[in-house]
Amino acid sequence: xxxxxxxxxxxxxxxxxxxxxxxxxxxxxxxxxxxxxxxxxxxxxxxxxxxxxxxxxxxxxxxxxxxxxxxxxxxxxxxxxxxxxxxxxxxxxxxxxxxxxxxxxxxxxxxxxxxxxxxxxxxxxxxxxxxxxxxxxxxxxxxxxx
Amino acid sequence: xxxxxxxxxxxxxxxxxxxxxxxxxxxxxxxxxxxxxxxxxxxxxxxxxxxxxxxxxxxxxxxxxxxxxxxxxxxxxxxxxxxxxxxxxxxxxxxxxxxxxxxxxxxxxxxxxxxxxxxxxxxxxxxxxxxxxxxxxxxxxxxxxxxxxxxxxxxxxxxxxxxxxxxxxxxxxxxxxxxxxxxxxxxxxxxxxxxxxxxxxxxxxxxxxxxxxxxxxxxxxxxxxxxxxxxxxxxxxxxxxxxxxxxxxxxxxxxxxxxxxxxxxxxxxxxxxxxxxxxxxxxxxxxxxxxxxxxxxxxxxxxxxxxxxxxxxxxxxxxxxxxxxxxxxxxxxxxxxxxxxxxxxxxxxxxxxxxxxxxxxxxxxxxxxxxxxxxxxxxxxxxxxxxxxxxxxxxxxxxxxxxxxxxxxxxxxxxxxxxxxxxxxxxxxxxxxxxxxxxxxxxxxxxxxxxxxxxxxxxxxxxxxxxxxxxxxxxxxxxxxxxxxxxxxxxxxxxxxxxxxxxxxxxxxxxxxxxxxxxxxxxxxxxxxxxxxxxxxxxxxxxxxxxxxxxxx
Lengths: 146, 553
Hints:
A: 146 residues; mainly alpha; B: alpha/beta; FAD/NAD(P)-binding domain; five-stranded antiparallel sheet
């Protein structure tokens, strides 16, 4: 497991804002958190330590700005914090090698990759995002190709 | 490692479009052919429908490369920093590593080049610093072989519309059906007074040559075809070669060097291959033949010529005038996106490419060459999210999610393969440090295209924006082009055709100067790469070379 429990909780809270539930399921209901964990365990294992560290840093940032860890912040404060990270406006010192803006943009990418990719990747359960936007690959049930 | 030696009439290195065609023609002419392919012979089910690991979006791998760590390359950026890269990375400039090569997963656009694409230097002059040159052959030399490729591979198109390149015979298959975006674009072209038509695609629009028609799935480019309706040499000429009983295909075979004698004659190859087809044990083998043909793509063919240096040819085979590996080029692709005022009632079916114009391939004031412009394949949702949402939209949150569902079916875009102005400094060399799985020096890619390429690409980008606006797009946007190395789309140019051995690597048929039984049949030969997808030209050159080789037997 590339993340400890507080980091995992922060990741899930973050995903819930990056792709929130509305009339359609959001990232968490679609399993996008599991997609990211799987990726950080396998294809992107080398990237996992800095993602983990940044999730801890996000909590430190939330406490510095709002006196609470990210998971317990009101939605509006979470969104304000995410926007600030995008612009590298931070109250705490982030690593020069992996600044806040790079971190949050990476998480935004990972969330969308899981949510909008094929269900087999694990972050788009039952093709929920595809139904939302009107996409179906229309692959034949019995392909005739050898 | 054991050592095995065998004898053939012909050895072909690479079972992509060109290699498969030469194998078919020569095996049917009675030759005993050894076809060596670095990748595997993948079935439909071996090529996953993974939207993050395919050949248009290979974020964490791709769906044809096995053992990707075994075949690194080195990429040198414009600032001179080098790094080791792997097949799924953009800087690798990959082509699918499998029997069939890129044609297992290609977009199937099967264009003939424009007659003026063969005489770019004559028409435009040679810009300083560039290596722009004429081909030593004309469109007329290649026309009969274009026709043969269209019929033996299978191309669908409208022969009444493609009059930029004169033809004697209709396409064997009817054109792909119209799509909703194509209908909008047709109206836009009419408004502008532009000629637009259905582009030629190598797809079975109906059953052809014993295989099914296209089922119009909405994955297509980058993936294997579920009905085997996507045409290439892997499902046409290669099966014909194997059916003769005279062609031996060995997969997972990496050629280490071409063997030449003191006179320059190529007499065989050394290669690594599994001891049995499924084994992980590798052995070094030697095979001999009267004719050797290289078809590994512009990067690997150049690498192999350089790897084959000998006492007589210390700079590599065919490299006496220092052209091997130089003039590496592909296509710059301006991509212009827009939003139609309404979503389509019936979402586009595959393949999706349905309208094109050749209005701007040549004759653009103050511009060298140009490009064909066409609409695109059905967009995967994740590709739409990454590259086709309006640039001022928030990248996350409720607004982004809402935009995905409101805009996905309204998206429309155009792109076009810009004819590049080659630079001798855009090149393949051997890396002095990094070795592949077999201990062979890997390809090192460095340099950039010529700045004139960027200028042409910017002109084409502006025309694409004009077209989208005229088609009724409410918003239109695109990104400026920058100067870089370009070979991931349609690698070419590294062993250019030239009548004069001082001007290139091969003679006008593709025979390497100074090595009269060593041939090349891939994009390496292209002096320039046309303002079109180049696959049909690779095929036509392969048919032409194979015919020439077969005539000598």
